[in-house]
Amino acid sequence: MSFGVIVNERTAPPAQGAPTDTGTWFVTGKVATGPTDTPVTTHSIQDFEAAYGARATGNQDLYDAVDVAFREGANKVVVAGQATGSDYGDGLALMDDWRLGPGQVSLIGAPQSADIATDLTTFCTNNNRVGVLDVNQADTYAEMEDTGALMPANSDQLAMFGPWVVVPGAAGIVGGADRQVPASAVIAGLCNRVDLDGNPNRAAAGRDYPLQYVTDFALTPPTDTERSGLFAAGVNAFANDFGVLENYGFQTNIAPTEATPFWQFNCARTRMWLKAQAKAAGSPYMFRSLDGEGRLANSLKTDIDAICLGLYNANGLFGATPADAFRTTVTTTIDETAMGTLHVVLEARYSLHTRAVIIDLVSIPITGSL
Q1: Residue 174 above 90 pLDDT?
Q2: Which of 17, 242, 305, 360 lies 20 to 30 Å (CA to CA) from residue 146?
Q3: pTM
């Protein structure tokens, strides 16, 4: 019989469960050195440099994007380096593993195309992630609408952002020129800041999430008319709102309608979050005994209800009461039980972010009454 502290030597660490961090950014781009056959998880620009070298001609686009993501709030970036002569498909293939967890996915250095948008949609579907696309660096606002049109119609897993942002020169380079970086790097940081506040259904936009490192935008922020055209094309643009630089849109290219919440990108992210949480909650129930009284099924229901209640209390689900916002139902049939299947159904109502604020001003003469 063993007694005391026992240290066993292993060749691999024990499993830690399904990853559920939706603040992770998955990004691929060209590198001149470093691994191109496996993704590298980084938590700082120093981690990136350790894997792919200091900022240089062969990696500067990807380097700058990762640098800005960390400065805007990211704390975990999974990088898939592309070798010379390879393309985004090779980078995506390195991250094509749902076990790496959910998060945002972006491609750096590849001009936008319909093929990219289609391939990224498939990739996100297979891995429970969402795609954050960029406009092209030289796009005008009219051209950004055309770029947005490259996305599949009514895509609820993609959103496009622009224009590119202006940030200071790279650290350690005296007198270095300002850099222009694709918007996805900023959105990646904002998404993680949102998640750290406890509500993945909060839009990564607005005054509560001002940009921390960006100093300007490649284009003057759009007029309201231009912004409406961009929204219709599924493109979200930044704003200088009374001197505060911020993201000012978080929509997909689905037309706003009462029939679906997924015209809002935060709802797509919340669905991703719920799927990841549900998978993690369900994993411990594998290989446990199914009982005739439904105790095991009700235990799983309780676990999922607890996840939803936490999201409801963070204002991520909509309803006057929790019962109005979500419902978990045990639906396991005797036939499913006979095949070793435990089955519950989760229904959820996602909260929407404010898209318009209307204030009616009524002017009353001093001879009138209120």
Answers
A1: no
A2: 242
A3: 0.92
